[in-house]
Specification:
Helices cover 52% and strands 10% of the residues. The chain is mainly α. A two-stranded antiparallel ribbon has the order 1-2. α1 packs antiparallel against α5 and α3 packs across α9. It is globular and about 55 Å long.
Amino acid sequence: MSNKEKFIEIYRTYIHRDGSDKLLDFLLSRNCDFFEAPASTRFHGSYKGGLVEHSLNVYECLKDYLSRERVRELYGLKGISEESIAITALLHDICKVNVYHPSKRNVKIDGQWQSVDTFEFQDDLPYGHGEKSVYMITGFMRLTRDESFAIRYHMGFASEFDNPRSVGYTFEHFPLAFALSTADMEATYFLESSKSK
């Protein structure tokens, strides 16, 4: 099964909110490159299809994190619905659609400069990262407050633009945000970083 097929299967199995069908239609349309886009220009998932692969990795990492007894009982995250897990994990980086464009760059390989394929970032809707994902999703369907905060702050303390106090407050008051951020970092730094190199 391809990553696109896995994504669609999980999406259709768990996400049934009003408007979710229209959002999936958008992701599958010619106006959207979600299933072909990379997840970044040079780092994790910096290859065709990297974005959907990253989204699936975050989904698996989030499911795993939320299944832990300590997380469920001590941290109180036992009431997170399958729909919320799927929405936050699969769609947290929807802001990355249509912003990476094929390009070339010169790199030194064995002492010789060579032109290699790469991606160039150009965002015609520079609305922030997590903010833009929330904005795009809510154009199709409503999010709960927990889902909105989780997606908005999924970069956690790694975001150079966020006030650390805001991140800390969000993690304390919206624990799904911490869980999604943890899953995103696990996928990025442990599952994907070596594949891009």
